[in-house]
Design a protein that fits this description.
heterodimer, A: 498 residues, alpha/beta, Aspartate Aminotransferase, domain 2, Aspartate Aminotransferase, domain 1, 3 domains, seven-stranded mixed beta sheet, three-stranded antiparallel beta sheet, 34% helix, globular, B: 460 residues, four-stranded antiparallel beta sheet
């Protein structure tokens, strides 16, 4: 290993076992206040429903819990530590004011069923965010209820179905480009639609001629990600929309890549009928190690009757309330109103930006992706030379000749102090390196990234075995995923039982 | 913009490096006629202090400082402060899904512990990493049962949370999955005779909730026996997780679909919450959602990875067990820390306090109005029937900064003027007594006005 990473230095970090291994009877991290009502006889109240024992639940003290989770936290990479260039995941800065305002007492302790007259604050947040998101997308109506992007897709396709049913028949198929995210076909199947694959053309875009030939009255909608997973804007979007609409179909947009468009162009203006947004991508709510997300669905007027219940309305007296009586609604997709805490954060982000900040953010995101592309062009294979928006996709074609694949390069990148890019996706690029820097990266951080990627390319030529064995500096080396799946160990058990 | 780390000179330098004349060059792929040539009509850029002020105002308009008797699927429990200190660490807060295991061991090990504790508490063998919430977990649990049995219909207890049933109806509608609703008996428990009659050879599962929507604990063993006898699975939804500290878990269930909000997750006006599915080991390959498993690295060291991914959408696409991708990881971490804090003894003591408060309140309300559904054990919720519409009583209680019980007329019109009241360890005796007083006054007035009407009728 001749190169010394400039971004990162290894240092000691703490070992920590499972919490169950620290437990011993009599330790406690809790204290309840004295009971101000009479004690009860649990056996008498519950009879045979009384639980006597909580099995292997731990008994530990507060300092042990603090150290336990703090130690474990130091084994994670995070946006707060540096560039996290996962393509299509939009790992941008998660502003801290978002966290503060979402924890204000009245918002954090608001019960979803408290009377509307003492929920005006929450309702105002729902309404203000809705208005902002409709303006940003150029759509006419919105539901905030879906809990994540895939849940938004589900909600969207339920609305597509309800729309077609209202016209006579639900239709049979959803067209999905081969570059799409896996949730798109999985969602179509969940809603009872058959999936028909749509091939991309040589420029990585929808093949409009193929679309025209595949589009017929059996097709309910096209699910299109725009910019697509190659980071390419569908330049013939107007033709795509026209083909769909001419045959009575709908154009659904997966808004996963909306970070490339906010303030520059609105999907509602280029023919999209409905779309979901990922507040945990474009609108800065934290990914939190895999969630929570939030996947609002914005729609054109024609789809408004089908929105999930309830929707927020302004009542005759000027106060806000929920409207439940919506006979054409697809129903409910989640209890209560959605991931409200994420709405607070997304709105705080929108207010912190304003129109100028949102536009600058988009411009910087696209600027950054193009800078990465320029820096690595010629070092890594660029399968599509079509202009890049917010993310760029290379392939491992050159390095694969030495037996080094995209995942190996990704693992070596860890040693240089970066989180890997997205690997092996989109499926139309074998051995993909999908890189999305977002607007949150400075020029200095990107220069370090480009330098690291170039050094790895050199290492692949000089010492491929070393790259194949990466990462070398993490507390665990590559883990045996095959063994994990073959004989799954999904929980801890006391040693005597193992 | 304060979140953006570039100076104008940086931007110029980057444009120059990539050979673009201006930023507009980079947006040239967007057809000109669609480009937005104006500012978005969103509020102007605000300073941090203005943002905090704006949301403080909203917080004040939102029942800040009120005590509540609302439960009904969302519970107000104390949240130990270390939950937020730990989940606010950037390494947890700002990490992605732990696909790159070598630099995600913190998230992965904590999920493994979460799965273990949920399994311990529910009496199941395995649990997943989380679902969106209790309602979608119940719907996914039912669809999982359909895959496991190859059957297509579902018998759902009417005492399952009404909004959970609405979500299930939405999901089931397009799966060609007929739903049969099974009524509750006089003690609010599932009517077992009706259940027996509702199950057919095409019933994939019976879905119940315990404690159910009225707070009553179901006779899970008896229900399981009826379901299993007919080849159907039993899916049990749990929306009040703290009950698991003192109520025997539904061990006879095949699938448990839980809402873990009670474990340290703020009410937050309905979300984000934390669903989770637990089941038997033999069913794990039909389970939706992410799973963490233990394995070893190249040096034989213990480590954790996301596993059994061949069930999931990013591998199987349209053949996946569910379309779920992003889940509720950070909320699961809150629940994990909460379970660790209370642990084996504390969770039982906490649940006992809930039981005691609700028992006291039910007794007091029972002296003044009618507490419905006697004869079966309850946890921390109970139904009070009044002469007056509970909305009117609640309106008066609001003046005392008390949010009364959840009026049931919308979902259960047959119960008349009934409301679902909930007490947790946070409910003070003073608040209970004040609420009882308001109900007592309402009953007195109702009685007086009824007497006045009777007198008038006699006079007439």
């Amino acid at each position: 290993m001749k190169h010394t990473p400039r971004k990162a230095t290894t240092h000691t970090n703490q070992n920590e076992g499972l919490i169950f291994e620290k437990s011993s009877p009599g330790k406690a991290a809790w204290k309840l206040p004295p009971l101000d009502v009479p004690e009860v006889d649990t056996a008498q109240l519950l009879g045979s429903s009384e639980r006597k024992d909580l099995g292997n639940m731990p008994e530990v003290s507060e300092i042990e819990i603090i150290r336990h989770f703090t130690r474990m936290s130091t084994w994670n990479y995070a946006i707060d530590l540096g560039m996290y260039p996962l393509g299509s995941c939009t790992m941008k800065y998660n502003p801290r004011v978002n966290e503060v305002v979402s924890r204000l007492d009245g918002l954090a302790n608001g019960h979803p069923y408290q009377p509307e007259k003492v929920s005006q604050g929450a309702l105002r947040i729902l309404q203000t965010l809705s208005e902002c998101l409709m303006e940003i997308t150029g759509m006419d109506a919105i539901t905030l209820q879906p809990a994540a992007g895939a849940h938004g897709e589900l909600t969207g396709l339920l609305m597509v179905r309800a729309y077609h049913e209202s016209k006579g028949a639900p239709r049979k198929k959803i067209l999905i480009p081969d570059s799409a995210h896996g949730t798109n076909p999985a969602t179509a199947a969940t809603v009872g639609y058959a999936v028909e694959n749509l091939k991309s053309n040589v420029r990585g875009m929808v093949d409009v001629a193929a679309l025209a030939s595949q589009m017929n009255e059996e097709v309910a909608a096209l699910m299109l990600t725009n910019p697509n997973t190659l980071g390419v804007f569908e330049q013939e979007i107007h033709k795509i929309a026209d083909i769909m609409h001419a045959n009575g179909g709908l154009l659904y947009m997966d808004g996963a890549n909306m970070n490339a468009l906010v303030g520059k162009v609105r999907p509602g203006d280029f023919g999209v009928d409905l779309m979901h947004l990922n507040l945990h991508k474009t609108f800065s709510t934290p990914h939190g190690g895999g969630g929570p997300g939030s996947g609002p669905v914005a729609v054109k007027k024609i789809l408004e009757p089908f929105l999930p219940t309830p929707v927020v309305i302004t009542k005759p007296d000027g106060t806000l309330g929920f409207e439940y009586n919506r006979p054409q609604s697809v129903g409910r997709v989640r209890a209560f109103y959605g991931n409200f805490g994420m709405f607070v954060r997304a709105l705080a982000y929108t207010l912190a930006n304003g129109p100028d900040g949102l536009r600058q953010t988009t411009e910087d995101a696209v600027l950054n992706a193009n800078y990465i592309r320029k820096g690595l062009e010629g070092v890594y294979d660029l399968p599509y030379s079509t202009p890049t928006m917010h993310e760029v996709v290379f392939s491992d074609k050159v390095q694969a000749k030495k037996g080094v694949k995209t995942m190996d390069i990704a693992k070596r990148l860890i040693d240089y102090g970066f989180h890997p890019y997205t690997t092996a996706f989109p499926l139309i690029v074998p051995g993909a390196l999908m890189i999305e820097p977002t607007e949150s990266e400075s020029k200095e951080e990107m220069d370090l990234f480009i330098e690291a990627m170039k050094l790895i390319a050199e290492e692949v030529e000089e010492d491929p075995q070393m790259v194949l064995a990466a990462p070398h500096t993490t507390r665990v080396s590559r883990l045996d995923e095959t063994a994990a799946a073959r004989k799954p160990v999904l929980r801890w058990k006391p040693a005597t039982n193992q | 913009m304060r979140y953006l780390p570039k100076s104008p000179a940086d931007r110029e330098a980057i444009l120059k490096a990539i050979g673009a004349r201006s930023i507009d060059d980079l947006f040239a792929p967007i057809p000109a006629e669609y480009r937005l040539n104006r500012d978005l009509k969103v509020p102007r850029q605000m300073a941090e202090s203005e943002i905090v002020d704006w949301f403080r105002e909203r917080s004040r308009e939102n029942g800040d400082g009120f005590s509540t008797f609302l439960g009904a699927g969302a519970y107000y429990h104390y949240r130990p402060v270390i939950i937020d200190s730990l989940v606010s660490r950037g390494e947890f807060l700002t990490a992605y899904t732990p696909y790159q295991a070598e630099i995600s061991q913190g998230t992965l090990q904590s999920i493994f512990e979460f799965q273990t504790m949920i399994s311990e508490l529910t009496g199941m063998e395995v649990a997943n990493a989380s679902m969106y919430d209790g309602s979608t977990a119940a719907a996914e649990g039912v669809m999982m049962a359909a895959r496991l049995t190859g059957r297509h219909s579902v018998a759902t207890a009417r005492s399952v949370h009404p909004e959970y049933r609405e979500v299930l109806a939405t999901y089931a509608h397009h799966q060609g999955m007929p739903l049969v609703t099974v009524p509750f008996a006089d003690n609010a428990r599932l009517d077992l005779n009706q259940l027996d009659e509702s199950i057919t050879s095409d019933t994939a599962c019976v879905l119940i909730q315990s404690p159910n929507f009225f707070g009553t604990i179901e006779d899970v063993a008896a229900i399981a026996e009826i379901a299993h006898k007919r080849g159907a699975l039993l899916v049990v939804s749990i929306s009040e997780a703290v009950s698991l500290g003192i109520v025997e878990p539904p061990r006879q269930a095949d699938i448990i679909a839980m809402e873990a909000q009670s474990f340290g997750v703020p009410l937050g006006f309905g979300g984000p919450y934390c669903g989770v599915i637990a089941t038997r080991e033999r069913y794990v390959r039909q389970m939706p959602g992410r799973l963490v498993g233990q394995t070893t690295d190249r040096n034989g060291k213990r480590g954790f990875v996301l596993t059994l991914a061949t069930r999931e959408q990013h591998i199987r696409r349209e053949k996946a067990t569910s379309n779920i991708c992003t889940n509720q990881a950070l909320i699961a971490l809150m629940a994990n820390i909460f379970m660790t804090i209370y642990g084996k003894i504390g969770l039982r003591e906490l649940a006992k306090q809930n039981l005691a408060k609700a028992a006291y309140a039910a007794k007091q309300f029972g002296k003044r109005a009618k507490v419905l559904f006697s004869g079966a054990p309850r946890f921390n919720e109970f139904v009070v029937q009044t002469s007056e519409d509970p909305h009117a009583i609640n309106d008066r209680l609001l003046k005392h900064k008390i949010v009364g019980g959840f009026p049931l007329k919308k979902f259960y019109p047959e119960l008349g003027n009934a409301a679902l009241w909930c007490c947790t360890e946070m409910t003070t005796r003073a608040a209970i007594d004040a609420a009882v007083k308001a109900v007592a006054k309402s009953e007195r007035l109702a009685k007086a006005s009824k007497e006045a009407v009777d007198v008038q009728e006699v006079v007439r």
